[in-house]
Design goal:
The structure is a single chain. The longest helix is centred in the C-terminal third of the chain and has 27 residues, at 204-230. With 302 residues, this protein is α+β, with helices and mostly antiparallel strands. It has eleven helices and 14 strands.
């Protein structure tokens, strides 16, 4: 979109390839000369590219009272993938926040998505690059906030689990929470929120359950799309983020996927992953295997 706007649309085809993230070519691991030419950006104004886990600098002593090495760098979802120890090809995690973000480790291969997912670098450690497919869901936990703040059928977000559990199913009610359009794999900015299947017997509980199901169904949509692109059949989905504490949602997710849903003890895995990458670089942990042994399961849904 940025390329299209800045160039009047004429270069849209050339630069819309998802494997070139902003100005960086994830194949060659260098700044993309074609994109730099299109945008008339001099190479010498761009920073040196570093790996995800190496000592890059020192935090000034004046800021925190001591010099602290800066040694880990990752995007939030890449950090969460590493924090979940999804370090082998075919492992995936979903972060349930305001939105949801599914990321699949594709190993040392860039998989060019044919179904509108993002091909990206997961991390680069010790000169080895791991790639991933990512799918973004715009509205996840935000649908629960909407029920709380707009419809006011719950007082706190945690109340939705008991309310939705008070009915055995959705009673025919389906909820598409496209409040800001639909993200992956649809990318429909014109889609709007929809509730269908209402009857005289529909209750707040049915709407609440349909809202939780909408989060799980959107996740399933992205995971099924990842399978089409990669041919990878998941054995389990690792979950994190604030909404992953909802046991009913996690059970619904497992039922829809017909896969194990695994929740770790630590669900704030974005921060955890960044710490792992930094600690690995400075020798706090000797290797990834040592970190892997720290990752612990809190609950498995089947």
């Amino acid at each position: 979109w940025l390329a299209w706007k800045l160039t009047g649309g004429e270069h849209f085809t050339e630069v819309s390839n998802a494997s070139r993230t902003l100005l960086f070519n994830i194949h060659s691991l260098e700044w993309d000369t074609e994109l730099l030419t299109i945008f008339d950006i001099p190479m010498n104004m761009l920073p040196e590219v570093k790996s995800s886990s190496e000592k890059m600098g020192i935090c000034s002593k004046e800021l925190l009272g001591t010099e602290i090495p800066i040694a880990g760098i990752a995007g939030d979802q890449q950090a969460a993938l590493f924090g979940q120890m999804c370090i082998e090809e075919g492992m995936a995690k979903n972060t349930y926040g305001t939105g949801c973000f599914v990321v699949l480790n594709t190993g040392n291969k860039v998989i060019e998505s044919k179904h509108k997912l993002l091909s990206t670098i997961a991390w680069r450690i010790n000169n080895e690059t791991t790639y991933a497919l990512e799918g973004s869901i715009f509205v996840g936990g935000a649908v629960v906030q909407w029920l709380r703040d707009q419809l006011q059928i719950i007082k706190s977000s945690s109340d939705i689990e008991n309310l939705a559990n008070s009915v055995k199913d959705n009673g025919g009610v389906y909820f598409v929470p496209a409040f800001v359009g639909l993200g992956a794999p649809h990318w429909d900015q014109y889609a709007s929120g929809t509730i269908t299947g209402l009857s005289r017997g529909s209750s707040m509980a049915h709407i609440a359950r349909a809202a939780l199901e909408s989060i799980a169904l959107q996740t399933m949509d992205v995971i099924n799309t990842m399978k089409k692109d990669s041919g990878i059949e998941l054995s389990e989905l690792r979950v994190d983020g604030g909404a992953s504490v909802n046991n009913l949602l996690m059970q619904i997710q497992s039922d829809f996927l017909q896969k194990k849903v695994v929740r770790p003890i630590t669900i704030e895995t974005t921060a955890l992953g960044a710490a792992y990458l930094a600690g690995l670089a400075i020798g706090y942990w000797e290797n990834i295997e040592e970190i892997k042994n720290q990752w612990k399961v809190e609950k498995v849904f089947t």
